[in-house]
């Protein structure tokens, strides 16, 4: 009984001797509340038709169009973070096969950016989807800090730490899942997805670049290169 | 008040030591079987093809691993993916021969090579135990003829959503989540191959 009384007195962190709610607990609870309990949710990109974008081309009845995702709010809404701040160019690609007999393959490794003023091409960036530039970094930094903090402050900092790690995971997951992958487009079918490029610093004018997409007709093995303006 | 802070600090030190020392949570992958799923996978019109199913070492080694706050969370799903890939291939093609390397020679006459490859394996964890966790695998299926010409290729996304769970129920919830993911991934993969006009056309030519 004495032990129980001792435990209650020593470990009662909810109320102090005057039976008032402990300030420390209030700080912890408010830290949890202000950091937001809900897991981050990123919506799907709305359904878009190949004719909705101005930058489009048709080859062998394969319709292809592309649009750069612009505007901080718009990018943040669909990717959870402003990718343009890190010089990442996000392009939405749509393809629709209106050829009644042939199927086409779009290979994600055959998508690149061409600088109009230079000869070299910029290939699709693996670095972005490997999480080195966005969510992954946030997760590492926040996670490491949370482990090192003083134990008393731990609950205050750990919850926002968990929340930040969770957000970073959601951002990274969303980025990878929305990426355009290699696919066959059967007659009458359409595909869409995003590609990401890290633009070289000091050369971030979108209008200087052209998007190159190679599509192969599976029936006659002929390859078509679509070169789309980005404006 | 000082005593209380001391006690609280002591508890926090113990908790933080536990956190820093870290644990490994190795989740059990459920033994999901396509054959037990019934009508969804019915196919009376198999492709008349002898197919070499290439189940690479990389596929079998596929895993999701996350280091978080000193803990390691691990889902080794490769063998299960290989098992289910074989099961749906058996339901779709007349004859299946398994190899584990592109250089391995086939015993019989082969019409095409089917290669499943995992492109994305990602899992999010909620900020709280009630927060939603999403486990996603994007798998590429590539069917090529013996001269390496593409007959058909597609990338299929499978997803399993569950609550993140707490220390008492997270293993059970992750197991449920993996099963949902496998159902989604292989049901979509089965439909995509079954309804492919490119594979049907190739099979008719043989």
Describe the protein's architecture and organization.
The complex is a heterodimer of chains A (231) and B (206). Chain A contains six helices and nine strands. Chain A is of the alpha+beta class and 231 residues long. In chain A, strands 4, 5, 6, 8 and 9 form a five-stranded antiparallel sheet that branches. A four-stranded antiparallel sheet of chain A has the order 1-2-3-7. The radius of gyration of chain A is 25 Å and the shape is elongated. Chain B is an alpha/beta fold and 206 residues long. Chain B has a single domain, classed as Double Stranded RNA Binding Domain (2-Layer Sandwich). In chain B, 35% of the residues lie in helices and 34% in strands. Chain B is built from five helices and eight strands. Chain B has helices spanning 2-21, 57-60, 78-92, 170-194, 197-205, and strands at residues 24-27, 47-54, 63-68, 71-76, 93-99, 112-123, 132-145, 150-163. The interface between A and B is large, with 48 and 46 residues.
User: CATH homologous superfamily of chain B - what is it?
Assistant: Lipoprotein like domain
Tell me the helix content of chain A.
Answer: 25-40%
- The share of residues in extended strands of chain B comes to 25-35%
**H-E order of chain B:** HEEHEEHEEEEHH
End-to-end separation of chain A in angstroms reads 77 Å
CATH architecture of chain B: 2-Layer Sandwich
Number of domains of chain B: 1
Rg value of chain B: 22 Å
* Portion in beta strands of chain A: 25-35%
Multimeric organization: heterodimer
CATH topology category name of chain B: Double Stranded RNA Binding Domain
Morphology call of chain B: elongated
User: CATH first level of chain B: which class?
Assistant: Alpha Beta
Coarse morphology of chain A: elongated
Query: Mean pLDDT of chain B, nearest integer?
Result: 91
> Uncertain spans of chain B, ≥5 residues at pLDDT below 50?
none
Give me the secondary-structure category of chain A: alpha+beta
Q: How are strands sequenced across the largest beta sheet of chain B?
A: 5-2-6-7-8
Number of helices of chain A: 6
Number of strand elements of chain B: 8
Low-confidence stretches of chain A: 131-154
